[in-house]
From TrEMBL:
Keyword Heme attributed: no
Protein name: Peroxisome biogenesis protein 12
GO molecular function, one term: zinc ion binding
Signal peptide annotation: none
UniProt xrefs under CDD domains: mRING_PEX12
UniProt entry keywords in alphabetical sequence: Membrane, Metal-binding, Peroxisome, Protein transport, Transmembrane, Transmembrane helix, Transport, Ubl conjugation pathway, Zinc, Zinc-finger
Domain Pex N-terminal, first and last residues per copy: 21-303
Family listed: Belongs to the pex2/pex10/pex12 family.
Domain of life: Eukaryota
Pathway(s) where this gene product acts: Protein modification; protein ubiquitination
Lineage: Eukaryota, Viridiplantae, Streptophyta, Embryophyta, Tracheophyta
Entry membrane topology: Multi-pass membrane protein
Subcellular location: Peroxisome membrane
Primary role: Component of a retrotranslocation channel required for peroxisome organization by mediating export of the PEX5 receptor from peroxisomes to the cytosol, thereby promoting PEX5 recycling. The retrotranslocation channel is composed of PEX2, PEX10 and PEX12; each subunit contributing transmembrane segments that coassemble into an open channel that specifically allows the passage of PEX5 through the peroxisomal membrane. PEX12 also regulates PEX5 recycling by activating the E3 ubiquitin-protein ligase activity of PEX10.
Length: 393
């Protein structure tokens, strides 16, 4: 399932890259919304929402690994017909008049680049999401402290935790380890709360800079991660798409040949292997369908809410005030069908946009060409502001 977007050459457009980059976020929103709706009747699904980052990262890890292994592209890039290519710059000393881009050669991805691509696509966004949640909690704690003050622990002077008939357990000895862990956690949260805004601003700034340079065709790297990995994203040709399909078939056949055991066990393992690949292929299509379904539902409910909140009947806006007739201007004729200049029935009626009065085209064109103003309001105008009317009243 591919979405072919227009353009020439192997270099994707800025809009293709932006769409491919925003697809995982839309996919996550669609999954979260769907699970949230299902959780209203299946309360156990709330556990999935509690560990939303982990479940989504695990899903994307499977999809990105499978996509990079079979198509040399990320999950979203493969859906748009894009492929990742390793960049090799070849030094050219023979002809200095050649373009700098002529020295760039593309090749297939190495195993190291595939692994690091998964890190940049899944691992780093996961850690950034966790840091963002920790920062939000720290910010809420600071806001609460500014409003209500710090919540100090009560009974700090009490050293009795549990009193039995013959035993007294000191609270400080039992809670020392927990207090140290809590204190360290608070320190880490405060450090993240202080450093995360700078980190977020830096990443967003680099992302914006690379996108602007890519839009201006000043670089071939759409993001800092692609630049660090030395990878260009290119359009896949028809031959490459056919090669990808054949490669997937060969990979599945090779995996079936590696299976050992009795014939019935080989058949069972082969069926499971084929089912796994089929599930992954259908999962990609299903997730994209979920994204479009979520966007449609979001538009539907938003439109319904707007219709419910908006008044049913809007009052018509008041008409603009009529133009004022100048004292030294030509007076208006009593009959609205007559031209103010020739006092005859209008022929080829034309209007001046600055005042809105209608004249014969020949009369008003000659007058405006000579005096550069409206004959009734004396407002300055030009012949470019004369408009022909095809229906006169």
């Amino acid at each position: 399932m591919l979405f072919q977007v227009g353009g020439q050459g192997t270099r994707p457009t800025f809009f293709e890259m932006a769409a491919a980059q925003q697809l995982p976020a839309s996919l996550r929103a669609a999954l979260t919304y769907s699970i949230g709706v299902l959780a209203l009747r299946r309360p156990f699904l709330h556990r999935v929402l509690d560990y939303e980052d982990e479940f989504f990262s695990l899903l994307m890890l499977v999809l990105e690994t499978h996509s990079l292994r079979t198509t040399d592209a990320s999950f979203s890039e493969s859906l748009y017909g894009l492929r990742r290519r390793a960049v090799k710059i070849k030094a050219m000393k023979d002809d200095a008049r050649l373009n700098p881009g002529d020295g760039i050669q593309h090749s297939g991805l190495e195993k190291r680049q595939r692994v690091l691509s998964v890190v940049f696509l899944v691992v780093l966004p996961y850690f950034k999401s966790k840091l963002h949640s920790i920062y939000n909690k720290e910010r809420e704690a600071r806001l609460q402290a500014s409003l209500w003050g710090h919540v100090d622990e009560r009974f700090d002077d009490a050293d009795i935790f549990d009193r039995g008939e013959d035993s007294v357990i000191p609270r400080g000895n039992l809670d020392m380890e927990a207090s140290v862990r809590t204190h360290l956690t608070k320190k880490i949260q405060k450090f993240i709360g202080a450093c995360y805004p700078l980190l977020h601003a830096s990443t967003e700034g680099f992302s914006f800079a690379y996108q602007m340079l890519y839009l201006l065709d000043a670089t071939g790297f759409y993001s800092l991660g692609l630049h660090a990995l030395g990878i260009h994203v290119c359009r896949a040709t028809g031959q490459e798409l056919m090669d990808t399909s054949s490669r997937i078939s060969k990979t599945r056949s090779r995996e079936r040949e590696r299976l050992r055991g009795p014939p019935w066990l080989k058949a069972l393992q082969g069926a499971l292997l084929s089912g796994t690949y089929t599930v992954l292929d259908y999962a990609q299509t299903g997730l994209i369908a979920a994204v479009f379904f979520f966007k449609m539902m979001e538009w539907w409910y938003q439109s319904a809410e707007e219709r419910m909140s908006a008044p049913t009947i809007y009052p018509p806006p008041p008409p603009p005030p009529p133009p004022q007739v100048a004292k030294e201007g030509i007076p208006l004729p009593p009959d609205r069908t007559l031209c103010p200049l020739c006092s005859q029935r209008r022929a080829n009626p034309s209007v001046i946009t600055v005042s809105g009065f209608v004249f014969c085209y020949a009369c008003i064109f000659k007058y405006v060409s000579q005096y550069k103003r409206c004959p009734i309001t004396l407002m300055p105008t030009t012949v470019d502001q004369i408009r022909r009317l095809f229906h006169d009243v």
